[in-house]
């Protein structure tokens, strides 16, 4: 699974990154997690609000940080 966190480096983007990594570990899911901070690359995904969450090339969420239970559901559904 390939996961990208889209955001310019704000607190919410960093929080989302930590949350994703923690839940992946909790669920024992292997994934390549990377952070995209280049605004031009972020815009290529068509999101208007950060943070954004991209799994396997598909934008699954943007503009907010999901609850831990919602994040688990998103990761399990898209693995």
Identify the notable features of this structure and list them briefly.
79 residues, four-stranded mixed β-sheet
Task: Describe how the helices and strands are arranged.
Layout (H helix, E strand, L loop, with lengths): L1 E5 L4 H17 L4 E5 L2 H6 L7 E4 L2 E5 L5 H11 L1
Helix pairs in contact: 1-3
The overall pLDDT average reads 94
Counted by DSSP, the helix tally is 3
The end-to-end span amounts to 6 Å
- Percent helix: 40-55%
The main β sheet shows up as:
4 strands, mixed
Report on this model:
The protein is of the alpha+beta class. Helices cover about 45% and strands about 25% of the residues. It has helices at about 10-25, 40-45, 70-79, and strands at about 1-5, 30-35, 50-55, 60. The protein has a 4-stranded mixed beta sheet with strand order 2-1-3-4. Helix 1 (about 10-25) packs across helix 3 (about 70-79). The chain is globular, with a radius of gyration of 11 Å. It starts with a strand and ends with a helix. The model has no long low-confidence stretch (mean pLDDT about 95).
